[in-house]
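Crash report, auto-generated. Payload:
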Amino acid sequence: QVQLLQSGAEVKQPGASVKVSCKASGYTFTDYYIHWVRQASGQGLEWMGWINPSSGGTDYAPKFQGRVTLTRDTSISTAFMDLSSLTSDDSARYYCASGPIDRFDSWGQGTLVTVSS
Amino acid sequence: DIQMTQSPSTLSASVGDTVTISCRASQSISRWLAWYQQKPGEAPKVLIYDAFTLKTGVPSRFSGSGSGTEFTLTISSLQPDDFATYYCQQYNSHSYTFGQGSKLEIK
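Recovered output after restart:
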């Protein structure tokens, strides 16, 4: 079955960057997009961007353009999300999700990122 | 950006009831709409995509309808496992937005 295993919780200072990993198993990594979605505590869901693991092509939500970088390493079936210039507003749980371009079929467990001085 | 508005934000129902959650898009999205269920402490889970296609393994008491700007999620014969928060999500031309969520509580 499809599994997405994300890296552990992070605590960062304002202005720093965070890199979250998402290791896929149970399917061919290059068959589906990897999307990144975040959720602040008690809040709704916010799409950040996707990466096409096959081509490496990316698309980012305008809100995060210039601050988020999505990459992948096909040799280890892992996608990465790098978010820079962190502020307290970036404190949230970050999810990776695989699926076709239009939706999010399978989700990782989420990675809690806390931004605090 | 396309805005997605769900209603109601909270609803109370009993086991066995049938409930309906609405989702309105600020502009037409054809049938590019999915519904998700999220329980506390868990990741969301897709229930329906393309407005009315049931994801494999999802119980048939879940159904979706609509196109354009108006969409509906219906849950018939509510089970205890169904009490959760539901989100709609649209995809249109490299844009993805979610509704604010509808929390289904036990009456």
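Post-recovery validation: Chain B touches chain A through 21 residues (CB under 8 Å).
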